[in-house]
Design a protein that fits this description.
The chain is about 0% helix and about 40% strand. The protein is an all-beta fold and about 130 residues long. It starts with a strand and ends with a strand.
Length: about 130
Amino acid sequence: QVQLVNSGGNSVQPGGSLRLSCTAAGITLHYYTVGWFRQAPGKEREGVSCIVGSDGQTYYIDSVKGRFTIYTDIANNTVHLQMDSLKPEDTAVYYCATDYPYPRPYGTPCSPGGEDVSEYHHWGQGTLVTVSS
């Protein structure tokens, strides 16, 4: 049974940092594309970043470029989202998702904004990030 577990959310002040984790059970996570999404109160879910399983390419939406980093921890079967220089507008519940069991063809990019959300079939439970002074 495939399971994704999200962790790392917390309350921080503007300018602070957090590292979110997406740990998988039942699959080898880095073989598949993983996306991070977020949903702020009263807003629609949006994609934030993604990493392609086949080639490790990473993608970010403009509002987080230079502040967020997505990367794979193969030893721990985990994909992290390192978030630096956090802003109040980053406040949201953050979810990871994977395209297991249908990995996209080699070289196919993922969409950081989540336009390809229908290609994700397993989701984490979410972790809350609050950025406030």
